[in-house]
Prior knowledge:
By secondary structure, this protein is an alpha/beta fold. The chain has two helices and nine strands; from the N terminus they run E-H-E-E-E-E-H-E-E-E-E. Strand 8 and strand 9 form a beta hairpin.
Amino acid sequence: xxxxxxxxxxxRVRSHLQTRGKGIGLRLGIKKTGCNGFAYVVNxxxxxxxxxxxxxxxxxxxxxDPASLELIDGTQVDFVKEGLNEAFSFxxxxxxxxxxxxxxxxx
Length: 107
């Protein structure tokens, strides 16, 4: 089981944690929503809850709850800039379908 970060994603999280002045890393999860069933939830992690799994990549901790982990195991998190738009993107090997807008996915 693993969640990984690209260097741009790690740099973005590190920069925001420094600006924010607190936090231990990135919290990655999912929620039921959208036309395809699930959407990614990205927040800053201030703590590790009981049952969470912690991964570390490029010096950044990624905290994932157990319910989310089974659906996003193997995911690589990237940070992409295209023109004025910038966002985290996800390469999840478990995805079987995505909606046209890219906001939700199915497994």
